[in-house]
Write a structure and sequence with these properties.
The complex is a heterodimer. By secondary structure, chain A is an alpha/beta fold. Helix content of chain A is 32%, strand content 18%. Among the domains of chain A are: 102 residues, Phosphorylase Kinase, domain 1 (2-Layer Sandwich); 173 residues, Dimethylsulfoxide Reductase, domain 2; 121 residues, Barwin-like endoglucanases. Chain A has 30 helices and 35 strands. Chain A has an eight-stranded mixed sheet, with helices on one face. In chain A, strand 21 and strand 22 form a beta hairpin. In chain A, helix 2 runs antiparallel to helix 3 and helix 7 packs across helix 19. The longest helix of chain A is centred in the middle third of the chain and has 24 residues. The two termini of chain A are 50 Å apart. Chain B has six helices and twelve strands. In chain B, the strands form five sheets. Chain B has a four-stranded mixed sheet. The longest helix of chain B is centred in the first third of the chain and has 9 residues. Chain B is globular. The chains are: A alpha/beta, B alpha+beta.
Chain lengths: 853, 208
């Protein structure tokens, strides 16, 4: 139904339809709570036949955030259909979005609060129904007990990757107010971290909006299984190709996308960084550097001190600047102390923040130094800096960052890269030619960054793109595209108080729990409250994580569905589904802020996350500081005092009316437009001056690590590498694909989708299978030292010999034995501190059906 | 009078099954009942290519439903007139009340998998009717297939499988109208129809 038709509906028509809904309810004698629907949801648009239509936002975080019409009849959601976006390019729905009805009314829904039956073990699946009052009473008394005995941080809240403003944010507010520990997920964080440290972005993946693909000469898709993982995006590629844009797919596997491509290059898994470095080497060899772009928009000409690895600063070579800097710093120090004193009444934390922000605001702009025709000068005064060269200054050798990069990639010859990536030299050179013939969109998926060297992949890739000026212009871009509007008032998170406990990144959690220490300091974790996530399914090394959970006294999981994680809880809380509450999303690939209406009341005894947190806060005497429901939480974040929201026309009331607001003023979002980056100098920092870990963990970078980390560099995957010793025992690299019929672990129990895709499978090259006596469509056991998993083998010549590919998202109960996450190590890169889902190896053998689970 | 039908740009189909799921919900299809099927053109398993890794791999997809033939084989064999051609739309329709479950139509139809038979009392994933309320109830011992979403055509809408397609490769319209999108597409692009040798003259055109 289009917008015009909706507007033409009369008030009378609406009343008629709601009356029909109400009548239907009284006949069916449904509980009074549902009757409130007719009165409480006047936003829904009515249609013929007594049907109401509400706007839903599908938000599994496939990046889509598609708008759906949620059709309600007799108080039930009966259908989801495609709703219009202002830009019709984004009016979309997919097989998952179409199946919501069966996901909402599903026998795996958590219906009421449940406690693990006393005397049974976690995971046995014996539950006792309890009241909300009892559940919240138990949770709060446990929290108070642990907080009293071990300090507030003994209680941890862990979240998944659910995206919204009310739902995830309310837990942050609680965490902050009570100074609890917060466990941050690190799914696919390597790439975002690499992008952040080179381009200055804060969160997300930044590339040109996909409506810009048509402006490219070539799209190179790197490890991007668009045609399964993000089916909603395929049409952009298709339309670009219809306009003459070439598609090249670099992927170990012959995906549907590869089958549509002009060229498919199957590289050895985990070798993308080497390919990027090799292309860079060719750019230098062929003198193909974009002098203007590299000179003005990257740190290429900045001189790097050999002794410290830092950029040489103008104050270090110019006495006047040194004096000015000293004076400015003294003034800043004084002002900061005054600001701190002025804020003293607001507590230590606020006063400290006032001190710090004043120092930062008054910081002296100590320009990096470049050479121009050999003479030193501040970078911002040089219009034609020398890109290459070295000199002696400030008592040390100083070399331009571009020179360092050129020298560091000198060894990455075509022959070397061809050997690493296991492709012919000619193929590599052909790919190089394509990369150099811009504009090119490097459409990057999550494949490459799912190895321990994943940070290098993005760091090297964006550097490669910058060298030829292939960034910030129509058709020229590198990366995945998932951006944050950042319009919601972030002060909401600390609106009930500010905590001081450092966050724990999930890959570090097992060590923190086992040792009771965080970076050497005592920090026992006694209770874990998991919301909006399913780590026992989606994270790595399930057996390690279960051991971690076993060492935690009390685990609460709040979720709409029974999952691998709820199954391992002591207490489960029923959360309402997406269309049973209001929500606003401000992230994704659509450059919009979207409003999700409440279509029906929460089913069964479920409640929204906001209501759950409110119940907890009440018992801590903090009820006044917490919103009663999602609407109130959203009004606080998108209120009249939110200047950004007001300027965009995206206040709560406006969003509720309009359903979507585009936050980018341009028709097509161009990442780093005109070469403007968000780093302190506004340049792409392919040379990272001060490499910092993403989150602290048990690993500490050595001096050697730090020295290497300034520039993108090659090292092989940790496990998935043919030269490793373990290769003899476990020769198969085990890679996942984002499943066509699920998103992460969501939709796993939708009957219609289960009919199309009934059980876990693993795709294997027939040659590898036959070598092991494995017949097509028989059950196989994939195993390594960490665990095992059983799935049905599907012969497929799409699969690169020596690799396996499995679709993600099945729950443990759906396997004959084990699950995929069992055989993924929790190993990570010290800087990226992120999960490395594909950096794992295994062996595979026929499975005897009679074997024990 | 009109001759409605489909144009499918199947070379750009990615096999996502959105069309099939839209149909399933819209028509409140019973469990294990599908009116739209998407076949992989390639290897034996779904989503697998033909050929050998490293040598000329090819893979494609073929979405198939009732072809709403102009000369339908199914109508001729139905002993009770339950299968008939709707004069107004050209849709091949099925009257569940008349159907005696003999399955002659299934045998006569040259297209595999477009019809299904309710051997048992239909069972559903959700315990109330979903989709469109005007879809007739499914019955035991009757043959079913794509109805061209006649209930939507009656409201001036397109079949449920059209606009949902994420690949945007499904088109619907009147082939009798030379200005319709479908007529223009087949005038401009080369196409093929399934099993032309059967002489049923399908109303589904696959663009090459």
């Amino acid at each position: 139904m289009d917008k015009e038709k909706k507007r033409s509906l009369t008030r009378r028509g609406f009343l008629k339809s709601t009356a029909a809904v109400a009548a239907g309810i009284s006949v069916a004698s449904v509980a009074g709570g549902t009757l409130a629907l007719a009165e409480g949801n006047a936003d829904g648009q009515s249609e013929a036949g007594g049907e109401q239509i509400f706007r839903g936002v599908c938000r599994p975080n496939c990046f889509g955030f598609c708008h759906l019409n949620v059709h309600v009849r007799d108080g039930n959601i009966v259908k989801t259909s495609r709703a219009p976006y202002d830009n019709p390019a984004y009016s979309r729905i997919c097989q998952r979005g179409l199946s919501h009805v069966q996901r909402i009314y599903n026998d795996q829904r958590v219906k009421y609060p449940m406690r693990r039956v006393e005397g049974t073990a976690r995971g046995e699946g014996q539950w006792e129904r309890i009241s909300w009052d009892e559940a919240i009473g138990e949770i709060v008394s446990k929290m108070q007990e642990y907080m009293g005995q071990y300090g507030s941080t003994a209680v941890a809240i862990e979240q998944g990757s659910t995206q919204g403003c009310a739902s995830p944010m309310i837990y942050t507010r609680l965490t902050q107010a009570l100074n609890l520990s917060f466990v941050v997920p690190s799914y696919d964080a390597a790439s975002a971290y690499a992008m952040s440290r080179t381009t200055g972005t804060v969160q997300g993946w930044y590339a040109n909006e996909r409506t810009d693909l048509v402006n490219s000469k070539t799209i190179v898709a790197w490890g991007a299984n668009v045609t399964d993982a993000q089916v909603q995006q395929w049409h952009f590629i298709k339309e670009a190709m219809a306009n003459g844009v070439k598609l090249v797919v670099v992927d170990p596997t012959f995906t549907q996308l590869a089958s549509k491509a002009d060229k498919w290059i199957s590289t050895r898994p985990g070798t993308d960084p080497a390919v990027y470095l090799g292309v860079m080497n060719q750019i230098f060899e062929r003198d193909a550097v974009d002098v203007e772009f590299v000179g003005q928009h990257t740190v290429g000409p900045f001189l790097v001190r050999e002794d410290t690895g830092k950029f040489l600063r103008w104050s270090e070579v110019n006495e006047e600047a040194a004096a000015a800097k000293a004076a400015q710093e003294a003034a800043a120090q004084q002002a900061a102390l005054q600001a701190m004193q002025a804020a003293a009444g607001q507590g230590e934390i606020i006063a400290g923040m006032a001190y710090q922000s004043t120092l930062e605001a008054m910081a002296y702009d100590d320009q990096p130094v470049v050479m121009e025709k050999g003479a030193l000068m501040p970078a911002n005064q040089s219009s034609a800096p020398d890109l290459y060269g070295a000199t002696q200054a400030a008592g040390t050798k100083c070399t331009s960052a571009l020179t360092l990069l050129r020298d560091s990639v000198a060894g990455m010859t075509p022959e070397k890269v061809a050997e690493i990536a296991d492709i012919p030299v000619e193929t590599f050179l052909e790919l190089t030619d394509i990369c150099l013939d811009g504009p090119v969109t490097h459409y990057v998926g999550y494949g490459a960054q799912a190895f321990v060297n994943g940070v290098q992949s993005t760091h090297a890739g964006i550097t490669m793109s910058a060298l030829t000026g292939n960034l910030g212009k129509p058709g020229a871009s590198f990366g995945a595209f998932w951006t944050l509007a950042n319009v919601a008032d972030m002060a909401f998170a600390v609106g009930a108080g500010i905590g001081t406990a450092p966050m724990i990144v999930d890959v570090y959690l097992p060590e923190v729990v086992a040792s009771g220490k965080y970076l050497g300091e005592d920090r026992p974790i006694k209770m874990l409250f998991i919301a909006t996530g399913n780590p026992l399914n989606c994270s790595t090394d399930t057996n390690l994580l279960k051991k971690t959970f076993d060492a935690i006294d009390y685990i609460v999981v709040a979720d709409p569905m029974m999952t691998d994680t709820t199954n391992y809880a002591d207490l489960v809380l029923p959360v309402c589904q997406w269309f049973e509450t209001e929500e606003i999303t401000q992230i994704g690939e659509n450059v919009t802020i979207s409003f999700n209406e409440k279509a029906i009341d929460p089913l069964y005894e479920s409640k929204s996350d906001v209501e759950i947190v409110k119940l907890i806060a009440d018992r801590f005497g903090l009820g006044d500081y917490f919103p009663a429901d999602a609407s109130e939480a959203l009004k606080m974040q998108f209120g009249e005092n939110n200047e950004k929201a007001k300027a965009l026309g995206a206040t709560y009331d406006e969003l509720k009316e309009k359903k979507e607001v585009r936050w980018e003023p341009d028709d097509v979002y161009i990442a780093f437009k005109d070469g403007q980056f968000l780093t302190p100098h506004g340049r792409l920092e392919f040379y990272v001056e001060d490499p910092q870990v993403r989150f602290p963990t048990q690993l500490t970078p050595t001096e050697e690590d730090i020295a290497l980390e300034h520039l993108p560099h090659w090292f092989p995957p940790l496990h998935a590498w043919h030269e490793n010793e373990e290769h003899a025992k476990y020769p198969l690299v085990c890679m996942s694909e984002r499943a066509r019929f699920r998103v992460h672990s969501q939709w796993h129990s939708v009957p219609a989708l289960n009919e199309l895709d009934p059980e876990p499978i693993v795709r294997i090259n027939p040659a590898d299978a036959q070598e092991r006596g494995i017949e097509d469509r028989t059950y196989v056991e994939c195993y390594n030292d960490l665990g095992h998993v059983v799935a049905r083998a599907h012969y497929s010549d799409a699969i690169r010999p020596g690799t396996l590919v499995y679709p993600k998202g099945w729950h443990a109960s759906q396997f004959k034995a084990g699950n995929w996450s069992e055989i993924i190590p929790n190993d990570f890169d010290v800087f990226g501190a992120a999960t490395s889902f594909m950096d794992t190896v295994c062996e595979i053998r026929p499975w005897d059906e009679g074997s024990e689970k | 009078m009109a001759h409605y039908g489909y144009v499918i740009d199947s070379k750009n189909c990615i096999g996502c099954h959105a069309c099939a799921v839209a149909c399933k919900i819209e028509n409140n299809l019973p469990n294990n009942n599908w009116w739209n099927r998407i076949f992989t053109i390639g290897g034996d398993n779904p989503n697998t290519p033909a050929g050998t890794f490293g040598e000329n791999l090819t893979m494609g997809n073929m979405p198939v439903m009732c072809q709403h033939c102009e000369n339908p084989a199914c109508i001729r064999v139905c002993p009770v007139g339950a299968t008939y051609k709707d004069a107004e739309t050209g849709a091949v329709r099925q009257d569940y009340d008349k159907c005696i479950g003999c399955r002659m139509c299934m045998a006569a139809c040259p297209f595999t998998g477009v019809r299904s038979f309710n051997w048992d009392e239909p069972k559903y994933a959700v315990d109330f009717p979903v989709g469109d309320p005007e879809v007739p109830a499914h019955q035991k011992h009757t043959v079913e297939k794509c109805t061209m979403c006649w209930h939507r055509l009656a409201k001036g809408e397109q079949p449920a499988c059209i606009e949902v397609c994420p690949a945007r490769i499904r088109y619907f319209g009147d082939f009798d109208d030379p200005d319709s999108e479908v007529s223009r597409l087949i005038a401009k692009r080369s196409y093929h129809q399934l099993l032309p040798e059967e002489g049923t003259r399908p109303s589904v055109y696959y663009l090459d």
